[in-house]
Amino acid sequence: MYHADELPGVLSRAKTAGIGTILAIGIGEGPAEMHHALEIAEATIAPELPVIFASAGIHPQEAAKADAKALARLSELAARPRCIAVGEIGLDYYHVENPEPEVQKQAFVAQMVIAARVRKPILIHCRTSELATPAAKQKFGAADAWEDVLALVGEHWAPHGVGGIMHCFSGTVEQARRSLELGFYISLAGNVTYPAAVGIREVAKAAPADRILVETDAPFLAPIPHRGQRNESALMAHTAAFVAELRGVSAEELAAQTTENFRRLFPSTATAAN
User: Fold this and answer.
1) Can you say how many angstroms the Cα of residue 75 is from the centroid of all Cα atoms in its chain?
2) Which residues have C-beta within 8 Å of that of residue 138, sequence separation ≥ 6?
3) Taking a C-beta distance cutoff of 8 angstroms, is the pair 98, 59 a contact?
4) By CB neighbour count within 10 A (0-12 exposed, 13-18 middle, 19+ buried), where does 3 fall?
5) How far is CA 136 from the centre of its chain?
6) Per-residue pLDDT tens listing for the chain (274 residues)
7) How many Å apart are CA 265 and CA 211, to the nearest integer?
8) d(CA 236, CA 218)
9) How would you class 247 by CB atoms within 10 Å of its CB: exposed for 0-12, middle for 13-18, buried for 19 or more?
10) Residue 37 near residue 57 (C-beta atoms within 8 A)
């Protein structure tokens, strides 16, 4: 994470790298901190820096804390203009300490209800137990986070026609296809550059041009050649260049396309300026 005194440098480097708009994810270390990103977005108004928007949401790892008070607070944050999305929300069956699936599902559905009320897209976090520790595999058993996410989205979200983003996509081509059918954009993070990410690269090549985005997942998943370092927005240029090469287009073409896609999903960002 970033300390307050580091933010000016992070944002300045992002602007220098060509990043004009940032969507800061507002999950914090739990519901008590999910307002922080929005406060930064609302306070950062300077022409020499990127325009910042925020999301707010309760991460599935914190689903047990999604009580009435936390959900009421989320409703309040989600209604504010600089908050343009609800998330990250979803399901995570990767860590043994995560809440039971039913607890995660209840929090996920409750937050979709809030997002539908304010008509703002959702940012979905989905992580399975496939590569988890033996203890996590034993806890979550045959539960499949992707199947559960897609089923819940189909029932509780898709009918509203608002759409959203499959954040830091790590699923299969088939899961991407089903996500697209449900109205989602596929967002690619720095791990698409890692040698072992064969499946993610297949998705990056196959996804429709008008439904792809790139992201950082900062401070995690810094792209090659910065893998292992703390990630930040300026490094997204490496991810974008890699995805552009995969798709056989120039980095400039990919930048223009992903910017257009972002503006389409979040039309209020098109006219905003610092």
Assistant:
1) 19
2) none
3) no
4) exposed
5) 23
6) 567 789 999 999 999 999 999 999 999 999 999 999 999 999 998 899 999 999 999 999 999 999 999 999 999 999 999 999 999 999 999 999 999 999 999 999 999 999 999 999 999 999 997 778 889 889 999 899 999 999 999 999 999 999 999 999 999 999 999 999 999 999 999 999 999 999 999 999 999 999 999 999 999 999 999 999 999 999 999 999 999 999 999 999 999 999 999 999 999 998 775 5
7) 10
8) 10
9) middle
10) no
Q: In this structure, what token pair is assigned to residue 204?
A: 């990056």
Residue 123, both tokens: 């940012």
